[in-house]
Structures are given as structure tokens and as C-alpha cells.
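User: Good morning. I'm curious how magnesium ion would be positioned relative to this chain. Could you predict the structure with it bound?
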Amino acid sequence: LKLLLVDFDGTITIEDITNLIWDRYLDFDWRAEMLPPFRVDKISHFDLMVQGYKPINATEAELLEYVRPLVRIRPGFEELLQFCRENNYPVVVVSGGLDFYIKAFLPPGLRVFCYTGKLNGYWQLSMPEGLVLEEGQNFKVWALEEMKKEYPGYEAIYIGDGRNDFPVSKSADSVFAVKDSTLARLCAEGGVYHTEFTVFEEVVEALSAKKLTYER
Ligand SMILES: [Mg+2]
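Assistant: Good morning! Here's the predicted structure, ligand included:
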């Protein structure tokens, strides 16, 4: 039995919604200023998000109105969900993005682990209710551990595209990385076995092929 953990921005969606929002609403070069400390683990992904959303005071409705026409869902996502339903594979979206935009693009009922954002003069971010990460503990690795507790013995499959997906990819049983993404490069450099894909049909095909091999 398999368990799927799927990143949202840049994986389920082709565009990264937070990047779109920051490109539109931050009046400084956030890539040059904010990414270098994140790349060398000087700040956590959560702190990066807190920093990037703090200067923004547009409402949820304004942000959604801006991003909606720009965002495409990666082809085959419905097929992947259908395949998982048919095989009773649990699917959970594990995202370092914000709940309000994730839920605006996903079918209802899909389980999501992500940060929460609330506009109180400026955007304030929080971890899921009750979760306090220890220093150096990674949010997505925590989510993987939670799911493994809930589904012991399941093969954990991680699907993602970004730097923030690399630590959890090292702990997952199999990894699918968006073709030519940062995650694909980091896995290649770090010797983490992974399969690259562009549309989710390729993931379905790979998972079905494996299943046949196991059952033979
Ligand atoms: Mg991503």
C-alpha cells in the first residue's frame, strides 16, 4: 500500500502562487535579499514566508483575484486523485504555502498540511493548530512522520519541485520530482533516487507499473 504526499506550489500548480504574489506586491528584489540565507539554512522556510508576507496588506480576495487567471493546475492531477481513490491510497497535500489560496484551487475534502495566513493589518502566518517545531525540525518531514504514524507500513511517496521538498525527499520511500526543477537537481546532486515527471499521468503510469511488478 502506498501513501502520497504532494507539494502544492509548482507541483500541483505549474506556477508558484507565493512567487506570483511576492513578484506583484513586494517592492524590493526578494529573490536577491531573502533567498540566500534560506539556501544556506540560516532561516527556516517558515521564517522566509513570514518575512515575505509581512509587507503585504492586500486582502485575501484581492490576492486571489490577482493570481486566479495566472495559475494553471498541472495536467493529470484529477487522474492521480482518481487513481489513488481506486487503490485506497491516502493522499495529503503538504505545502509551505498558505491555506487560503491552496484551498481555493483544490477540490474540497482533500487533506492539507500547510501554514495559515491571516490579515491583521499585515499578513500573520502560523503553523497548523498545536504544532510547535523544534529548532531545525522541518515542517514537511514532520508531516511525513505524522502520516507514517497514521498509516504504518505504507510506502511513502513524495512528489515535489522545490528546495523546501528536499529534506522530506530524503526520508520518503520514493520521490517524484518535477522535471528540471530545483528538487530534481538537489536529488541528483545529493544522490537521492527520484523519477522526473512533467504531467501527473506519468506518475500514475509509474505507480501502476510498480504495482504490477509487486503483484506478479
Ligand atoms: Mg513547490
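Residues 200-215 form the longest helix (16 residues). The chain has a mean pLDDT of 95.
Let me know if you'd like a different ligand tried.
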